[in-house]
Amino acid sequence: MRMESRSALQGALLGPLPREFSAELFDDEHRATGSSELVWRLAAEAYGEDYPVEVQPWGSTTWWVLGRCVSALRVGPGHVLVDLACGRGGPGLWLARATGADLIGVDYSPVAVESASARASSFVPSEQARFVVGDLTATGLPDRCTDAVLCFDAIFFADDRIAALQEVRRVLRPGGRYVFTAVETDTPTRPAHVTDWGLLVEAAELELESKETVPRFAEQLGRMYDLVLEHLDELRAEMGEKAADRLKEEAEAVGPGLPRARYVFIVARRPS
């Protein structure tokens, strides 16, 4: 892609992130949520029967999303699955167990990688999963090393989203699939909002196979934010003031815009 075209696309669709993110910030987040029981109870209450309790996803990874992944990724025993921005590892480990694929989890938070490694034996044999520190735009993985890639609720953290998608293309084998979830909105109110992830997928020279709207996203995440605000004092006591206040900030910033947002499940493919 020509640089001027890339810059125009970035400016039209996304713009800069509204705040700076860092590995240290996510280290703090994972320490806080990893030691919390209340935050997971609230998530289970907010999402109801759609919430995979064993997985403990931080985000909107429901049973619907996991079920779609099993069919979309097209992996099984003998295949390799990479989970980008894997966090504490739950969704990738569940999918490795469900499909039989070997898992490589990548996250730029060393605390997340340590936590995911500790959880792995609850899902799969030790040789079936490993976790490494890496970035969305620089995973450290070899070219064409994986049959499929997934990334839940995280691609928007990349400063350069096209570069993050190109990194996926680099590590995928020809014909390999990439599944990710993200938010779109037709009425952007924040600089980081994206109107159409499909355009970015195509700009990274991946083929867009499908894009579906995840059901009940605004309702369920809105309920989660309501519960966070209702239980803020308890969360502060359990997680610490800094982590709880970041949840409060997110709830107050993101919650009001949920009715204008679409949470999409996207399947892309590296051309053969």
SSE order:
HHHHEHEHEEHEHEHHHE
CATH architecture descriptor: 3-Layer(aba) Sandwich
- How many separate structural domains? 1
Annotation, overall tally of beta strands = 7
How much of the sequence lies in strands comes to 15-25%
Keywords:
single chain; about 270 residues; alpha/beta; Rossmann fold; seven-stranded mixed sheet; 7 strands; about 45% helix; globular
Account of the 3D structure:
It is a single chain. 43% of the residues lie in helices and 19% in strands. With 272 residues, it is an alpha/beta fold. Strands 3-2-1-4-5-7-6 form a seven-stranded mixed sheet. The model is unreliable at 1-19 (pLDDT under 50). The radius of gyration is 18 Å and the shape is globular. The protein starts with a helix and ends with a strand. It has one domain: Rossmann fold, CATH 3.40.50. It has helices at 3-13, 23-34, 38-47, 63-73, 90-99, 110-119, 161-171, 197-203, 217-230, 232-239, 241-254; strands spanning 80-84, 102-107, 129-133, 146-152, 172-185, 207-213, 261-269. The chain has eleven helices and seven strands.
List the helices and strands and how they pair.
Layout: H1 3-13, H2 23-34, H3 38-47, H4 63-73, E1 80-84, H5 90-99, E2 102-107, H6 110-119, E3 129-133, E4 146-152, H7 161-171, E5 172-185, H8 197-203, E6 207-213, H9 217-230, H10 232-239, H11 241-254, E7 261-269
Parallel strand pairs: 1-2, 1-4, 2-3, 4-5
Antiparallel strand pairs: 5-7, 6-7
Give a quick summary of the entry.
With 272 residues, the protein is α/β, with parallel strands linked by helices.
